Amino acid sequence: MPELPEVETVVRQLAPLIAGRRVQSIRIFDAKLAAAARADLAGRAVTSVTRLGKRIVIALGGPGGPRVRAGSREARESREPLWLAVHLRMTGRLVYRDRDRDRDRGAPAANAVPRAVVELDRGRVEFWDTRRFGTLEWIDPERAAAAEGIDPTGPAFTVEALRALLRGTRQPLKTWLLRQDRVCGLGNIYASEILHRARLSPFRAGGSLSRAEAARLHAATRQVLDAAIRNCGTTFSDFQDAHGVTGRYQQYLRVYDRAGEPCLACGTPIRRQVQQQRSTYWCPGCLKKEKAGASPA
DNA sequence: CTTTCAGCCTGGGCGC
DNA sequence: TGCGCCCAGGCTGAAA
User: What predicted TM-score, i.e. pTM, was given to this entire model?
Assistant: First the structure.
C-alpha cells in the first residue's frame, strides 16, 4: 500500500489503536532489518503515529517503569524520544493484532512470518512485506523532514510553491512528480492520474508550464489525493488485512493500468509507455482536446 | 547537474 | 501442469 493516500490510511487506522500504548520490544525476523534492532524499548509509550511523505513514523516517548539514577548519562539517554520510520515500498503492510485475537486474519500465507514485530503490552504491530523492499529505520524527524519535499496535502503546497519548484526543470512532468525531494508522497498510480486530471502531457518538461497549467496541476493533485484518501487509497489485491483496510479508490482510476481501454471522458484508447523504467498511462484524446480548446476559436 | 540502468525481492498472470 | 517470460503501488547507487 505504498503511495501517500495508502500510507495516510494506515496512519489513520493505526494511530487510535496504538497511541498511548506501552511498548515491550521490537523483534526482527529478517536479517535485512537487523540494523533496526534495539533493546531499550521496554516501558516506552507510543506518543504518536504520523506520516512523513510515504513513511509511517511511530514516536516513542521516554520509558516509564523502573527509574535509572537521576541525572546519569543513562537517564538522559533513556529519556530521549525515539522515532521508528516504516517505509512500505512495494508490498509492505502494517498489521495490528490484539493478543490472542485475530491470530490468523491478515496473514498472507500459512506459516509465514512477519519481517518484524513491535510488541506492545497487549497486542502487537506486525510488519509484513513479501518483496522485502520495505525499510525500518530509527530517524531524527527534523532531519528527515528537511530532506523531504513539500507535502501536497499540507498548507505549504500552493500554486506559487509548485511553480517555484518546477522552474527551470527539464524533467518530464511524470518523472518529476515521482521525485520525493520536491513534492513528496506521489507514486506511479497517482502521478498518472493527476496528470490526466490536469490535462497535461506526462512528457512535457516541468519547467515549461504556464501559470495556468501549474494551477491545474496543483488543483488536480489536491483533488486526486483528497478523493483517494477519502476512499482509503487504492487496493489491487483482494487481501483483507487484520483490521479491514481495503481501499476503494481503484474504482475511480481513470488511466492507471487501463492501457487499450477507452478513456472514460472521450473514448480514446488509453496509452501506456515506459518512462524511467515505470509505466506511464495517459489519454492522447484528452490532450488533443485540451490543445484545441486552448487555442483561440 | 542530468539521465539511464541494474539491482534489490517475491509472486501473479500469460502464452506456449 | 510446467516453464519462461513480463509485470508490479519504490528507491538506491553506479556509471555515462
Answer: 0.92
Nucleotide nearest A53 (Cα, C1'): C10
Residue A54 and residue A44: Cα distance in Å, rounded? 25
pLDDT, tens digit, for every residue of A111-129?
Answer: 689 999 999 999 999 999 9
Residues 6 or more apart from A163 whose CB is under 8 A from it? A209, A211, A214
**pLDDT tens, position by position, A150-167:** 999 999 999 999 999 999
Nearest nucleotide (C1') to alpha carbon of A91: C9
Bases of chain C with protein Cβ within 7 A? 7-12
The grid coordinates listed for A172 are 518530464
Give A230's contacts (C-beta < 8 A, 6+ positions apart). none
What sections of chain A are H helices per DSSP? 4-18, 73-79, 141-147, 159-166, 173-177, 188-198, 211-230, 284-294
